[in-house]
From TrEMBL:
InterPro entries: DUF2231_TM (IPR019251). It comes from Rhizobium rhizophilum. The chain crosses the membrane at residues 38-57, 69-92, 99-117, 129-149. Pfam families: DUF2231 (PF09990). This is DUF2231 domain-containing protein. Residues 30-161 form the DUF2231 domain.
Length: 168
């Protein structure tokens, strides 16, 4: 078996990147606000998809009303989380310098746009949930996965937003 060797020479670009501050600029008791606020829109995006499926199966207008509220709340909560995330992106050099941060931001802004379109569709044409609302809900769920994957990569691989004391 051939052994794979890794270069022991450090990469100067990565070293320069790691020197930049990557702690959260907006935190409550050491917990990044963006990381705390994304759970609600994520849950509501998937909740809207579930509600659309329930409406598809039952044709009960109750699910139309629930879908209007879950889609609207997902959009509003997503905008709030997006504002905090954008401030973090712009204020923290260690976040701004990473490609994964920009990929996460683009996926998240696209997701917020789709969530807004989904809510707008329900406001203007409640009966258009099938098929257009369901398709928008599916697209939003996929975009949530993409944005979440990049966000998780930022936290777990790059340590973005972690406020760890020196003794930890």
């Amino acid at each position: 078996m051939a052994e794979t060797s890794q270069s022991t020479t450090p990469n100067p670009v990565i070293e320069q990147l790691e020197e930049k501050d990557k702690t959260s600029a907006i935190a409550v008791a050491g917990h990044p606000l963006h990381a705390m606020s994304v759970h609600f829109p994520i849950a509501l995006v998937f909740g809207t998809l579930a509600v659309d499926v329930f409406y598809w199966w039952t044709a009960d207008p109750f699910w139309l009303r629930v879908g209007l509220w879950t889609a609207g709340t997902a959009f509003v909560a997503g905008v709030a989380a997006g504002i905090v995330g954008t401030v973090e992106l712009l204020l923290v050099p260690g976040i701004r310098a990473r490609v994964a941060s920009w990929a996460h931001a683009i996926a998240a802004v696209t997701l917020i746009s789709v969530a807004g379109a989904n809510w707008g569709l329900r406001l203007l044409e409640p009966d258009a949930v099938l098929p257009h609302g369901l398709l928008l809900s599916c697209l939003a769920a996929v975009l949530t996965g993409v944005a979440g994957w990049h966000g998780g990569k930022l936290i777990f691989d790059h340590g973005i937003g972690l406020m760890v004391s020196p003794k930890d």
